[in-house]
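Lecture notes, unit on protein representations.

Consider one protein chain, 268 amino acids long.
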Amino acid sequence: MAHKKHKSQYISFLIIPDSQNEPKTFKFKRSVVSVFVGVLIGIFALIIFGAASYWKVAEIAIDYSRLREENFKLRKSMEKINQLQTDLNQMKQIDQKIRASLNGYVSVAKAETMDSTAISDINFKKMSVEQERTIFNSIPSYTPVEGFITRGFDASSFFTDPHLGIDIAAPTGTPIKAAADGIVMFSGWTDDGGNVLIVKHEFGFSTVYKHNEYNMVSVLEKVTKGQVIALLGNTGKITSGAHLHFEVWRNDAPIDPLVYISENNSES
């Protein structure tokens, strides 16, 4: 019995042109076509794998960039904290120099002996008119700007950041007046508060004025109650409109300014 010869199998491709040219036929062995298709599938798989690997590497690079940016912001925040600490130390040194330079004057000596005394414990009946005037001018009872209170004092909020003062809304450029007699301890720019003023008064009081359009007094300048010290504005990152953020502090503790001032009157 004769052995039957195995015939090679071919795959034909017929190309019919749009013109009047004759159709062309291409024949390829089935094995060659199979190898070619396998190579295409392998290349496609490599492309998919490469794309997936690229996106994975890209995600890692993005995370690294984000972490590097957060680390940069953290270092900047630490630098700001250190700078604030340095400014605070400088303010304390300035305060000590002011007290040393004014030492010996009667008014300063009286203030030193009464700093720890509560305002309510002062016997005003035994004081002269000049003494009463000095005391009342040193208490921050003058409303610093005419406007509407849009946010009150809230030092113990559980859901939002504490609000250690009151916000008084008014048109940009409205005069801001000193709440009491005092000495300017800080007049400058902060990122959050914009143009800021800090005035130190007698009896342990300090007042803070933030988001000013323009500060009209400088450090160590003496101001009087009702004197225009700044113009109202909308400066700084933490602000939502033209207003004055006004704080009252006594013995390094925040106090609701409405304890001393009246919302509707220029003098309490």
